[in-house]
Amino acid sequence: MPRSLDNFSIKQLLELDACTRCGACVEACDAYAETQEAGTAPAARLQESRRLLKAEHGLSWLARLRGSPAVSDGEWQALAKDAFRCTLCGRCGSACPVTISLRDLWLSMRQELVCRGLYPEKLDLARDAIRQQHNVVNYPNEERAMWVDYMAAAPADGYQRPTAEMVYFVGCVASFSPAVQSIPEAFVQLLTRAGIDFTILGEREYCCGFPLLAAGMRDEMEALKRHNIETIRQIGAKTVTFTCPSCYNTWVHEYGPELPDVELVHSTQLLARLIGEGRLKLKDSALRVTYHDPCDLGRNSGEYEAPRRVLEQLPGGTFLEVQPNRAQGLCCGGGGDLEIADPTLAGGMAGRTLGAFEATGAEVLVTACQQCKRMFQAARDKRGAGIGILDIAELVLRVSEETGSDGAS
Ligand code: SF4
Ligand code: SF4
């Protein structure tokens, strides 16, 4: 029996008919470039989504004439197999000449597939971890701020204060993954150097809900959102800052309407501001750097310039722009829960994209996302050598002047 079309907006149902089959999205898709499998091509997924929905719901005159033929479970299962082999990077939608919002369509289709029980089992593990531990990696949430214990000169309060002007929302991956805990370590030192009144949340921080949104399990994130908003209110923060673009994007779009009086700012935006105001002073460095636009910061949040303002201000440094960049920037393979659903594909995408940065001749690939850094580090280490990889907070810490009270390790 046909289900309702509640997971799709009217706009999306109309967009299904707007596709001209030009193939621009297929050219743009890094997942398709890696697999070369027809099912991962975004145009093919859109066409198949349209065919199944129309056949099941009798939306076309032909279907009505034939009496809405049933769609087999196997046809939906085939679509489901490919729907989760996608990073939700949005590169397809950026390339679409008729401006179909493909990323939104993929999210709605995942919700539809979850309603039908057709999704990778491993996503259940991530959902259960978030339900039980409040983080996606299934560690005890009391250990969320353990990275502070490894800092050489952290303050006695471990950066956890009862009230503060600013909250630094660290995110699950940077909190728990040893490969990228250097990012929050660097960022808290920079906030301290700039004289900002801030706190981290420690175990009071719950997953922002992004992995659930990406999995098509939007309903599951409401309790997390309520908790995180309540915590920000208790602290009385006027600003929440993020080194994770996916947390930032989720807060802006999902939490923002309920926090009109709170500024939500990504680390790149904050660092550009602090350097511009002279609150962080940079030393001379002869580094040649390039920059990767994280999908959830660039294409999906529209922030391309703040990181470039930081990198172009490096005294004595050289900024080498990668091609393509900004809205056409390549994907690290680590988004959209792909690393959970298909880690081999995710790793392959990271390796392909890393090559473009190595071709710039830069010594250091700078990014502004812990997941991008993890993916590129793993791809480089698999080859055994290659370009240095730093988050922008780590780079700025390396070239900023010490104040003597920043907990530098
Ligand atoms: S969102 Fe990215 S990975 Fe997914 S279909 Fe579009 S271009 Fe491909
Ligand atoms: S780029 Fe847009 S119009 Fe062209 S095939 Fe893809 S979805 Fe269709």
Gyration radius over CA: 22 Å
Q: How many structural domains?
A: 3
The gross shape turns out to be globular
The major β-sheet equals: 4 strands, parallel
Question: Architecture of the largest domain in CATH?
Answer: 3-Layer(aba) Sandwich
CATH class of the largest domain: Alpha Beta
Question: Would you identify the regions where 5 or more consecutive residues have pLDDT less than 50?
Answer: none
Structural class: alpha/beta
Describe the structure.
- This protein is of the alpha/beta class.
- The protein folds into three domains: 10-115, Fumarate Reductase Iron-sulfur Protein, Chain B, domain 2 (Orthogonal Bundle); 122-274, Rossmann fold (3-Layer(aba) Sandwich); 279-399, Rossmann fold (3-Layer(aba) Sandwich), CATH 3.40.50.
- It has helices at 10-18, 24-28, 30-35, 42-57, 61-66, 73-83, 91-95, 102-115, 122-133, 172-176, 182-193, 210-215, 222-235, 245-255, 267-276, 305-312, 338-341, 343-358, 370-383, 392-399, and strands at residues 166-169, 198-200, 239-242, 263-266, 288-291, 318-319, 364-367, 388-391.
- The strands form two sheets. It has a four-stranded parallel beta sheet, sandwiched between helices. A four-stranded parallel beta sheet has the order 6-5-7-8, with helices on both faces.
- It is globular.
- The mean pLDDT is 94.
- One iron/sulfur cluster binds next to helix 3, helix 7 and helix 8.
- One iron/sulfur cluster (SF4) binds at residues 28-31, 42, 86-92, 102-103, 106, 331.
